[in-house]
């Protein structure tokens, strides 16, 4: 095992944790079971040679009692191994899922992009289940089979050193054969789990976007796509399984050949008096034990080979370096909502030829209302994502409250920066439970007040259950505009120093949009508000408006100033007044 392989295995085994005791007791129980099984053939040989052949009933009863006791003890050891093995493997699976989930919670967006959502889901479900099954098999069969194999060979050698040579030749042959099979199977199973990721991605996208699929009548396309993913997985599994199955005839042939050879040479030795009938019976029993344990070892090798891909994939998640971390002595208080961008350059990929944001210099006073407009791809969202440190800059610095955001404790910074996205997410539960994501300790009155500010109270009060009405997963039982207003209310409950609305009123009508902005001016004047919008009417009464184009600030000023001095802003304003376009349709910022 090379150093890298050792590292990934140690990463997984470190999560056995509090289940170390059952993990140790399992192989001990299996070894106890093997010891009892090894005694039985010797006792059986004694019954045949000294009891049956001599007609000694007392000896038969005495040794038979010992056989029964050995069998009972073996059964108890086996039950103990099954119980402790299940407990240890299930505990490892629980700890691995918990460790991955907790580590993923610390991931930056860049970390999540690296693995993909479907890849992370596969690692926490299918991959962990594979490791759980293989860990249990290793603890039980992985210790039992080699122990039984070695003891059976030793016992057979004690009975007849000459016939034991047959076993050794077969064991050597099958050992080499299994190593060859292992190399091929390991490669195939790595491919299998890549196909699993593709399958999960297809399922996830289809289910989460089922309304879009149906509205565009794309069911047949999605079926074809899913059949392709399933077919790829089937072919990858089939190739791996064919390799495994092809080894079975070789294994069975070796078993039958060994039995025939032992029987042939054993019978000749009985005729010349070098071996007794009982000893031949015990040798045949040991022969079956040796070869059956070899088969079990081959199964273990296949299962471990299959789980090795899962072990590597889970280790990648657990060993992934979190790109955004707290400094050694983080700042725990955000003084105010002032923001400053100083020579900021940013890209999602460090090797990209062109940065997403280039040489951004910007200063926003605490409590100011800033509108941000620009066409699709102008990097409006990228700009505001740097404020709560969802990503880190490549060059320059972003300051909040006069301090570089990299100096803050991440939780402290993000508690003071509330972000409402255009694609809002609600969770299954009541409206109140969703609102309290913003503040778990918020009273019902505070939740109602936040909904008034967000103009969400008007539709909530019409619901039969009001604020106790149930929200389906993803908020599928409310409209897009209602989701946006609930998410704005949820953000307001944080009582943030900075509020970012990332095109989050796009699904509400113009009148409601105006009422929400008026409520912000009247009720939270000290909060710095950044409003990203496509409609100029949504930002024209802001203190200042930033016009973004191709990762640069093309202009900044009040509505009146930009109408006079910024050609892009003026052209789009005129096109929207005429009702013929917006920033993506006006021809200037696409």
Give the SSE map:
Blueprint: H1 3-13, H2 20-52, H3 57-105, H4 109-115, H5 117-159, H6 161-208, H7 210-215, H8 219-271, H9 277-319, E1 339-346, E2 357-364, E3 369-374, H10 380-385, E4 395-400, E5 403-404, H11 410-416, E6 417-420, E7 429-430, H12 431-435, H13 444-453, H14 457-460, E8 470-471, H15 480-492, E9 498-502, H16 510-523, E10 528-532, E11 544-549, E12 552-557, H17 559-565, H18 567-577
Parallel strand pairs: 3-10, 3-11, 6-9, 9-10
Antiparallel strand pairs: 1-2, 1-4, 4-5, 7-8, 11-12
> How many distinct helices?
18
Largest beta-sheet details: 6 strands, mixed
General shape: elongated
Secondary-structure class: alpha/beta
Regions with little confidence, pLDDT below 50 for 5+ residues = 585-590
Describe this structure in words.
This protein has 590 residues and is of the alpha/beta class. Helices cover 63% and strands 10% of the residues. It contains 18 helices and twelve strands. It has helices at 3-13, 20-52, 57-105, 109-115, 117-159, 161-208, 210-215, 219-271, 277-319, 380-385, 410-416, 431-435, 444-453, 457-460, 480-492, 510-523, 559-565, 567-577, and strands at residues 339-346, 357-364, 369-374, 395-400, 403-404, 417-420, 429-430, 470-471, 498-502, 528-532, 544-549, 552-557. A six-stranded mixed sheet has the order 6-9-10-3-11-12. The chain has a four-stranded antiparallel sheet with strand order 2-1-4-5, with no helix packed on it. Strands 7-8 form a two-stranded antiparallel sheet. α2 runs antiparallel to α9 (277-319), α6 runs parallel beside α9 (277-319) and α8 (219-271) runs antiparallel to α9 (277-319). The longest helix is centred in the middle third of the chain and has 53 residues, at 219-271. It is elongated. The model is unreliable at 585-590 (pLDDT under 50).
């Amino acid at each position: 095992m090379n150093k890298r392989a050792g590292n990934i295995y140690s990463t997984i085994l470190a999560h056995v944790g509090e289940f170390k005791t059952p993990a140790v007791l399992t192989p001990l129980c299996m070894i106890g079971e093997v010891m009892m099984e090894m005694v039985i053939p010797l006792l059986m040989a004694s019954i045949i040679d000294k009891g049956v052949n001599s007609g000694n009933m007392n000896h038969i009863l005495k040794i038979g009692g010992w056989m029964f006791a050995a069998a009972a003890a073996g059964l108890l050891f086996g039950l103990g191994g099954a119980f402790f093995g299940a407990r240890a493997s299930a505990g490892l699976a629980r700890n691995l899922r918990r460790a991955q989930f907790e580590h993923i919670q610390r991931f930056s967006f860049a970390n999540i992009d690296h693995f993909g959502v479907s890849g992370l889901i596969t690692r926490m479900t299918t991959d962990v289940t594979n490791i759980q099954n293989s860990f249990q098999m290793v603890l039980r069969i992985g210790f039992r089979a080699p122990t039984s194999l070695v003891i059976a060979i030793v016992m057979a050698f004690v009975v007849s050193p000459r016939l034991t040579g047959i076993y050794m030749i077969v064991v050597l042959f099958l050992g080499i054969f299994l190593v060859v099979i292992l190399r091929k199977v390991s490669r195939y199973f790595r491919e299998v789990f890549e196909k699993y990721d593709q399958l999960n991605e297809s399922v996830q996208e289809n289910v989460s976007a089922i309304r879009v699929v149906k509205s565009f009548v794309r069911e047949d396309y999605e079926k074809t796509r899913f059949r392709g993913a399933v077919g790829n997985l089937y072919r990858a599994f089939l190739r791996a399984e064919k390799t495994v199955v092809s080894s079975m005839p070789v294994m069975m042939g070796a078993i039958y050949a060994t039995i025939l050879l032992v029987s042939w040479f054993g019978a000749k030795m009985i005729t010349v008096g070098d071996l007794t009938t009982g000893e031949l019976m015990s040798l045949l029993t040991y022969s079956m034990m040796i070869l059956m344990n070899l088969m079990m070892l081959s199964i273990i090798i296949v299962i471990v080979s299959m789980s090795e891909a899962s072990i590597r994939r889970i280790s990648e998640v657990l060993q992934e370096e979190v790109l955004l971390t707290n400094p050694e002595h983080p700042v725990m208080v955000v003084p105010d909502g002032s923001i400053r961008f100083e020579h900021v350059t940013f890209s999602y990929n460090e090797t990209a030829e062109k940065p997403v944001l280039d040489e951004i210099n910007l200063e926003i006073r605490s409590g100011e209302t800033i509108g941000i407009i620009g066409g699709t791809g102008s990097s409006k969202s990228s700009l505001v994502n740097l404020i709560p440190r969802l990503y880190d800059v490549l060059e320059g610095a972003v300051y909040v409250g006069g301090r570089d955001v990299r100096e803050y404790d991440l939780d402290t910074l993000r508690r003071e920066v509330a972000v409402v996205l255009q694609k809002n997410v609600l969770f299954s539960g009541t409206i109140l439970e969703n609102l309290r994501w913003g503040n778990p300790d918020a009273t019902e009155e505070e939740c109602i007040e936040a909904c008034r500010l967000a103009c969400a109270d008007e539709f909530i009060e019409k619901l039969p259950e009001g604020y106790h009405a149930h929200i389906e997963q993803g908020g599928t039982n409310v409209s897009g505009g209602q989701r946006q207003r609930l998410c704005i209310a949820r953000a307001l409950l944080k009582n943030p120093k900075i509020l970012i609305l990332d095109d989050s009123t796009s699904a509400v009508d113009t009148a409601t949009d105006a009422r929400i902005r008026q409520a912000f001016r009247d009720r939270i004047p000290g909060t710095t508000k950044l409003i990203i919008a496509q409609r100029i009417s949504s930002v024209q009464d802001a203190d200042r408006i930033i016009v973004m184009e191709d990762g640069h600030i093309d202009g900044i000023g009040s509505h009146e100033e930009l109408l006079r001095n910024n050609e892009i802003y003026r052209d789009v304003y005129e096109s929207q007044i005429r009702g013929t376009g917006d920033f993506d349709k006006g021809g200037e910022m696409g």
